[in-house]
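Entry:
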Amino acid sequence: MNVNAKVDFGNSAADINPADIETISVLKGAAASNLYGSRAANGVIMITTKKGVKNNDLLVNFSSSSAYTEVGRLPYFQKRFGQGWSGTFDTKENGSWGPVMDGKDRLTGYVVDNVQQVAPYSYKENGIRDVYEYGYSLNNTIALSGGNNLIGWYASATNSTNDGVLPGPVDILDRNTLTFKANGGTEKTKLNFGMTYINREQKTIPSGQGDDAGTGAVIYSDILYQPVNHYLPDYRDYKYKFNNLDNYYNGYAQNPYFTLNETGAKANQNRVIGNLNITRELAEGLDIAFTGGLDTYSQFSKVHGAVAKVTPGSNNDGTINDVAGAVKEEAKYQTQLNSDLVATYKNEVDLFGGNLKYNLLVGNNINQRSFKRVNIVSKGLVVPGYYNVGNISGAAEVYTSEYLRRLIGVFGQLGLEFNDFLFVNLQARNDWSSTLPIGNNSFFYPGATLGFIFSDLLPKNKTLSYGKLRLSYAFAGNDAAPFMTSEIYRPSILRSGGFGFTNYPVGGIPAYEKYQRLGNPNLKPEISKELEIGTDLRFFSNRLGIDLAYYKKTTTDLIMLANIAASSGYREITSNLGQITNDGIELMVNVTPVKTHNFTWDFIYLFNKANMVLDELSEELGVSEYLINSAYETEFVAIPGEQLGMYRIPDYKYSPDGKIIVGDNGLPVEGDKILVGSSVPDFNMSFTNNLSFKGFKLSFLIDTQNGGLMYSNTAGATFWSGNNEQSTTNDRRPWIIPNTVTEVKDADGNVTGYVENTTPVVDNWHEYYSANTNKPIESSRLIPRTFIKLREVSLSYRFGSSMLERTFLSSANLSVFGRNLFLWTPAKNSFVDPETTTWDNDIEGLFGEFNGAPGVRTYGLKLDLTF
């Protein structure tokens, strides 16, 4: 687990300009993505961008959208008990374990200069929510397109400005995009060219856990540990004597406004994406095409955290950790080159009294990806507020990582189409990867699909408009990340006090160590095989459509990091984990309940149920299970025969008749760890409605997910601090945990029997709800993934041609929209949006979130004009 002050600047998907997109297609399954190589092992999102049209007049399109955002789901807090501990009011505590709030004025905070402040001891509505402000976004695009008899062209410029929900200029994204595309040529030679430049400037703040040895506290963590009788915006002036580091009322956390203003991260990225396609007709039906692509970017980022030292002898001396202050600078450079040389041949013949169309495709793909990262980390700033990597007394941590990887593939496909109702595709690809061991870096994966439009053989009728059966069986291959087959070195790491780490050099003395990951010279490629059976049925002149599919995907030799015994001198090895089977059903129903001249109602229903089971673990691991991720007492494990990603936490200790055993303090005694559930949901559904009336169109999308668990440290924080509604059991009056017993022991400490528990929980509620003192309460950090979400609503109006005939406009569209407007979750999750994750996007990301930033609701207006 590494959650220390994580900074996320997003991924490359954020660079895609929505205004340039013409269509988006999702290629699911191995059969659909087989020819695209290992980068498409998990599917393909095919984005087709706009282009000019030959012999077309000049068209100018202007689109503008503006939107406001507000913070979405925050934890629901209890409103009865205020600041304190063990039922006693205490002005410096960071929990709401005090007495019942009575609304009377009480002294609050510390005595400063012989003065102490007074405030009503009452619940402060929106005490955390009002830390956030309304964010906004503004997007403007101007696009021009046209063409003559030789060339068609398209050009666009987009400016996007976004300011998030945190106060001040700390979460900003400014993006500028320039695109130019041209297509032309002769009847036999076609040429397409495209180039896009993106500049992205961004500011954000760290999330996760604090790093006392470096950049310090994290705002998302600090605001969770605040008693409910305090209104955080009252502490905006973090330099005021009652609010500063020495005297901030919460003796165990920094003032969040200090963190917000004195810690930050910024990045500047420049990216160029270019492609060139030349297609030449060599003979009738025979074409050869070359496509070359370039994607290169450079990014410079800087993260800084202030020196935060409490004055010796001040009120917070000894309760808040000093923060050394740090500056981290990083430069990243990445370039991807891709080329495809493809020859296709199309023809048709008469066969068996019918027409057989066939096409043959053969090709070669070369892909090269290079990457370099240079990091400079300076911890322990000498001059506070001067964020320069040279502002330290010792040596900075400097390290570089880089790689160059290549993938070469050859592929082919034979497509057959008989009388427009029977379709067969046979395809295969072989790749050679530089990231796999020499001598074992080649992997082959074929595939086949069959489609049968059986409705063409039936008599015409008014019920069944279209019927198709499909069957596919295909393989997909995947290689490893760079340097997984050999050992690498990195600067040695020392554990620091509090939350944080220090890397060598220390005191000017460098030290390197073999990285904790052991190289695996026997690593094998990851191969998936997938079977899909489906049908597409349409009834009543396409007023009702049903698309149903069953799939089963088995992945062997899944490449993952696996833990190994520390006695080996390493912690993990890149290994072929074993075999995983993912199977399920997908259903899509399209209905047009109403269709008249002026009014149409379309309804789309989607259902997906999936299982993801670990069939077996590789024998070379030498273990019966695999630890995917962990946090505190929660383990996220892969166990053969179970769903991939099972949660294991400490259970209670039970008497022989199944009653919970408690100790002398009335709190449960820890027993063995047990499995309590999986991260895999039972099913997902969505409902899309489109209603059109003349020029108006109303659309809304509802998503729902049922089942599955997730880890939430946000939930754990609210239990620990006594801020959530669940922590008010029995109104915090003395209570005996039901169905509990205590052990009877002899003089030697042997258990001789059990008696009914008579020890109540009186002043130690905080111990009952803290996993530090009651480990089985770790279950409070596991919350359901179930939700119902109003994902999107939009209302648009397209102006008719009669309204525009006397204007310079050829089309105009105005719309209002909202996103994530409503979220329902079951009572056990009153904390976070279940789609939140602060880990990676792969299997580890299924674990959950660690003090993640809350999601937002969006309300906006968009105008689209063409002239």
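Residues 713-720 form the longest helix (8 residues).
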